[in-house]
Every structure is written in C-alpha cells, then in structure tokens.
Amino acid sequence: MAKTSPVEFVKQVQAETKKIVWPSRRETVMTGVMVVIMTTLLGMFFFGVDAMFDAIVRFLLSLAQ
C-alpha cells in the first residue's frame, strides 16, 4: 500500500467531505419523531412482557409456600 503525504491526505479528506449530503431539517425532525415513537412502543412492550413474567414468577412462588 502506497504511503501518502500529510498534505495529500488533507486534500483527500477535503475532497471526500465535499461529497457529504446532509439531511434536511424536515428529515432530521421526522427521524427524531420516529425514534421517540419507536422507543415508546418498545418500552411499553417490554414493560408488558416484564409484568407478565413477574406475574408468572409470583404465581409459581406462591405455589411453593
């Protein structure tokens, strides 16, 4: 692999950064809203699963007494 000089490296980095396409404000907001919705739904789902397992374990432990 050929070594590049620091100056050539900086030029390559600048060329690559010009290719970056940033999302629009609307896309960023929509993505953020979707993240909040999905984390809320997943949180409720896992809360329900945890409550179900808690009830099962408590039932099984009550049988042992």
UniProtKB/TrEMBL annotation:
It is found in: Cell membrane; Membrane. Pfam families: SecE. InterPro entries: SecE_bac, SecE_sf, Translocase_SecE/Sec61-g. Gene3D superfamilies: Preprotein translocase secy subunit. Keywords: Cell membrane, Membrane, Protein transport, Translocation, Transmembrane, Transmembrane helix, Transport. It comes from the Bacteria. GO terms for biological process: intracellular protein transmembrane transport; protein secretion; protein targeting; protein transport by the Sec complex. GO terms for molecular function: protein transmembrane transporter activity. Belongs to the SecE/SEC61-gamma family. NCBIfam families: secE_bact (TIGR00964). Component of the Sec protein translocase complex. Heterotrimer consisting of SecY, SecE and SecG subunits. The heterotrimers can form oligomers, although 1 heterotrimer is thought to be able to translocate proteins. Interacts with the ribosome. Interacts with SecDF, and other proteins may be involved. Interacts with SecA. This is Protein translocase subunit SecE.
